[in-house]
Amino acid sequence: HAARIALFAARALRAARATLVDADAPAKGCVNIRVGFHSGPVVADVVGTVNPRYCLFGDTVLTASRMESHSERNRMHCSAAAAQLLREQAPPELQLESRGVIQVKDVGDMETYWVDMPEAVEDKLATALMSR
Question: Rounded to two decimals, what is the model's pTM?
Answer without folding.
Answer: 0.89
